[in-house]
Amino acid sequence: AQSVTQPDIHITVSEGASLELRCNYSYGATPYLFWYVQSPGQGLQLLLKYFSGDTLVQGIKGFEAEFKRSQSSFNLRKPSVHWSDAAEYFCAVGLNTGTASKLTFGTGTRLQVTL
Amino acid sequence: KAGVTQTPRYLIKTRGQQVTLSCSPISGHRSVSWYQQTPGQGLQFLFEYFSETQRNKGNFPGRFSGRQFSNSRSEMNVSTLELGDSALYLCASSFATPKETQYFGPGTRLLVL
After folding, report:
1. Stretch (H or E) spanning B6
2. Cβ-nearest to A43 among B50, B90, B101
3. Which of chain B's ends, N or C, has fewer CB atoms near its CB within 10 Å?
4. Helix or strand run (H / E) with residue A90
5. Which whole-number Å values give the CA distances from B50 to A76, B58, B60, B113, in the listed order?
6. Rg of chain B over CA atoms, in angstroms?
7. Which chain B residue has its CA at the smallest distance from A107's CA?
8. Using CB atoms, which residue from A42, A46, A108 is nearest to B106?
């Protein structure tokens, strides 16, 4: 069964500093990978996704992620964090069996931004 | 294009009651998935419906059930509510295949007293 690990439960960065959120996955085949963000009391918003091809993926709000097959990782990065980026971030792996849609999520990383 | 809508947004029930939550997917989307989010267990997949058929199911007891209508709208039902069912229930829709992005609604927050 697939699984996702986000080793950092909580991260604090200063506004303007760079950010990297870690995500490791376990899946028997090439996975579909996603990063979602959730603000308090809200649903999930897709930041970016990887299906195949270029391993560096660009997303919304200036985020990017790099798929590294050898490390089973899909880390999220942003060169300069804004105070509005404070939220909870979820990495997810999707089935690619072609028959059903299901996302397995990591436990999330809560990002705090100090001014 | 309107996003995924969920009703109601908030709900308070007592133990033993049952509850029905509703989800309207993005127009044209045929797949609807449900997730439960709790502080202890995180985000967990409940089930997915596609063309009125349950296509995938997570590891939840039979008290949790769902259905999908011909217009792709979906409902989930929880019978005999337990305190542990208190959670944010999220609905997501996509076109059809696992490659398609799932778009999430704002969720229904259920409190069981």
Report:
1. strand B5-7
2. B90
3. N
4. strand A87-94
5. 31, 15, 19, 33
6. 13
7. B42
8. A42
**Minimum CA–CA partner of B54 in chain A:** A100
Contact A44, A90 (CB under 8 A): yes
Locus of tokens 């950010």: A19
Q: How far apart are CA B73 and CA B69, in angstroms?
A: 5
Question: Judging by beta carbons within 10 Å of its beta carbon (0-12, 13-18, 19+), is residue B41 exposed, middle or buried?
Answer: exposed
Alpha-carbon gap, residue B24 to A79, rounded angstroms: 37
Mutation target to probe the A interface, by most A beta carbons within 10 A, among B9, B99, B111 is B99
SS3 of chain A: helix, strand, coil, percent, to 5: 10, 50, 40
Question: What pLDDT, in 10s, does the model give residues A15-34?
Answer: 999 999 999 998 877 788 99
A 58-77: CB under 8 A from B = none
Average of per-residue pLDDT across B60-88: 97
